[in-house]
Amino acid sequence: MGVWVDSQQGGKNGGKCSWRSLTRRKRVDSAIENNSKAQLAKELTVPHLMAIGVGATIGAGVYVLVGTVAREHSGPALAISFLIAGLAAALSAFCYAELASRCPSAGSAYHYSYICVGEGVAWLVGWALILEYTIGGAAVARGITPNLAALIGGVDNLPIFLSCHHIPGINIVVDPCAAIMIFIITGLLCCGIKESTRVQSVVTSVNICALIFVIVAGGYLGFKSGWVGYNLPTGYFPFGVDGMLSGSAVVFFAYIGFDAVASTAEEVKNPQRDLPIGIAASLFLCCGMYMMVSIVVIGLVPYYAINPDTPISSAFSDNGMQWAGYIINVGAFTALCAALMGGILPQPRILMAMARDGLLPPFFSDINKKSQVPVKSTIATGLVAAVLAFTMEVSQLAGMVSVGTLLAFTTVAISVLILRYIPPDEVPLPPSLQDQIWSTLETNEKDREANVGSSRNQKPLLVKEDDSIDQPLIGNRRKVVGWVIAFTCLGVFVLTYAASDLTLLSSVRFALCGVGGTLLLCGFVFLTCIDQDDARHNFGHSGGFTCPFVPLLPIACILINSYLLINLGAATWSRVSIWLAIGVVVYIFYGRNHSSLKDAIYVPAAATQVVDTYHKSTPCLA
Question: What does the longest C-alpha to C-alpha distance in the chain come to?
């Protein structure tokens, strides 16, 4: 019935050694977790997921970004920059789609990295995402006040309780409107996922209608005026191909937000089908909107004459349609509201997932029985974001938002490689089930001892400590592939760092680029030539989306995101390092010691079916 091991080795993979805690991996959600934990309401379908993804992605940035990037980087080739950035974002979207359909639980990248990579990496990813969503939400909320003022005719027309006020003595500009908007959206999210998503759908639809107006009306003006923005002596690439590519790196961050769809995986009715469709459709719609808006705006006004602050409304004003500014302002305001909802929505679910795993206090894992959402986590998220938005000018911290997203994108791509080539072959058995299953198996074993001999120093734990003892070839293969994936990632880091750091001597840069490129190329060739592990077919929930072009697509995703991470700047990384250092302290003194896997032992992945059978059939386990 079980796999026999020496009883003296039973605690080998537990949490006794501090370094082992970093590599602890949890199992994909099964009947045990589903019956022992309160669950979120399964209410979402593809239209809801598209509303969340598009709303979180298309913020007010598109109403400003097209002017800045066109003037400084891309020129008339702005649409191509958006296309390249969209293709780069699609690499991460493919990886997210496979993992979201295989592991449909709350937590997004934190959840996937905990299953595939380990507890240490998962903690850093989750901790970075907390920072991302908190600062991102506060930054978006700070942008609502000026857009609301533009919508009603100026700052002077705002009521005093919504206007910004300078506090003398402490040199702080408070923004009551930003805090009020966060409180309103927090209350809406506490009502339930279905109710909040309906509002998200309406707000996002208004924004999409405004962008469609820009495309249709702008296209009419373009044909009427002869598309003067494209009839220039400098051609389509005034800044060269390099300028177009640098523009792609800038607008890439306009696609950040589709990962919010993955955070709602546990609330989707049919996650294997709907999650990949929702992620892909959101990204496709956003890319199409970005490209069409940029084509129209660049065609109405030469790129060098575009107003960098109000590019779209200024382009219409230059062509005699000043009234179009009102529609554009409505679109910008609703875009910010939708982005704020999409920014606050994922964080409570990440906090809930981390608390379920014991890495955060259980306070954050409570789910309201009526609304079936993590109300306490949502309120805590809203309070922190509202305080930041009310008291701080967070625009200088906006670069820190990108770290969490890019780090999540990178670990998700690495998780796909691990899933395909070395999927976890052992899963933890929680302490709450060890004693119960032990006693059940011992009872059965006593009945057999009369007929079957049993060694004194062996116990039926359903534990297999080391597959390599019985299957040395398979065990050695997994170790080799694991090191190849690790050295491939190391090669990516060395290559991108050497290519980005212009302060290095040219000879050192070329040498590092050679070393990194060699490691990357050798790893790619090795992974391409060997077969993927057949155990991947039984990993997680089958029947969902499968990421194509593995290992090429995940490695390309790791390369692009690593390059963007390294180029965020020293100031951004110095701030993020402080936050990550705080996270390390919290993990050492709380998360590591309270992890649900602290005293877990590991069973072969094939034995999980036996565990689930005992859980269903034995009353004491229910």
Answer: 97
SS (H, E, C) 24-65: CCCCCCCHHHHHHCCCCCCCECHHHHHHHHHHHHCCCCHHHH
Q: Which of 216, 140, 213 is nearest to 178 (CA)?
A: 140
Look at residues 347, 340, 48 and name the one whose alpha carbon lies nearest to residue 184. Answer: 340
DSSP state of 72: I
CA atoms within 13 A on the CB side of 359: 29
Neighbouring CB atoms inside 10 A of 232's CB total: 14
Q: Number of C-alpha atoms within 13 angstroms, CB side, residue 509?
A: 11
Angle at 60 between CA 311 and CA 125, to 5 degrees: 135
pLDDT of residue 8: 36
| Three-point CA angle 76, 81, 86, nearest 5° | 145
Identify the CA nearest to 568 among candidates 128, 140, 127, 143. 128
Q: How far apart are CA 339 and CA 109, in angstroms?
A: 20
Helix (H) or strand (E) holding 242, with range, is helix 240-251
The residues, ordered by sequence, that sit 6+ positions from 335 with a Cβ below 8 Å of its Cβ are 58, 59, 60, 62, 63, 207
**Residue 433 tokens, joined:** 């089930």
Full DSSP string of 257-273: TTHHHHHTGGGBSSHHH
Token readout for 304 is 């060098």
Could you read off the pLDDT of 221-247 as tens digits, one per residue?
A: 999 989 999 988 888 899 999 899 989
Token digits of residue 342:
């999409």
Q: Which residues contact 465 (CB under 8 A, 6 or more apart)?
A: 5, 9, 12, 13, 602
Question: Which runs of consecutive H residues, i.e. helices, occur in 503-617?
Answer: 506-529, 552-566, 570-586, 592-594, 608-617
Residue 232 CA from chain centroid, whole number: 41
| 40: amino acid identity, one letter | L
Six token digits for residue 260: 């919010």
- In angstroms, the CA 83 to CA 283 distance is 11
Structure tokens at 245: 């590519």
The whole-number mean pLDDT for each consecutive block of 10 residues of the chain, a chain of 622 residues, reads 38 52 80 56 94 90 86 93 94 95 91 94 95 90 88 84 84 90 96 94 95 95 91 89 90 88 92 94 95 94 89 90 91 93 94 94 92 95 94 72 91 96 83 61 61 49 46 76 96 94 89 97 96 87 88 96 89 90 95 88 67 53 42
The neighbouring-strand residues paired with 381 are none
CA 298 to CA 96: how far, in whole Å? 33
Q: DSSP secondary structure string, 13-25?
A: TSS-SHHHHTT--
- The per-residue pLDDT for range 299-339, each reduced to its tens digit, is 999 999 998 888 998 899 888 898 998 999 999 999 999 99
Exposed (0-12), middle (13-18) or buried (19+): which is 288, by Cβ within 10 Å?
middle
Element (H, E) at 292: helix 271-300
**Which residue, chain included where needed, has tokens 């919290």?**
586
Q: What whole-number distance in Å separates Cα of residue 388 and Cα of residue 174? A: 10
- Measured CA to CA, the distance from residue 491 to residue 614 in angstroms comes to 45
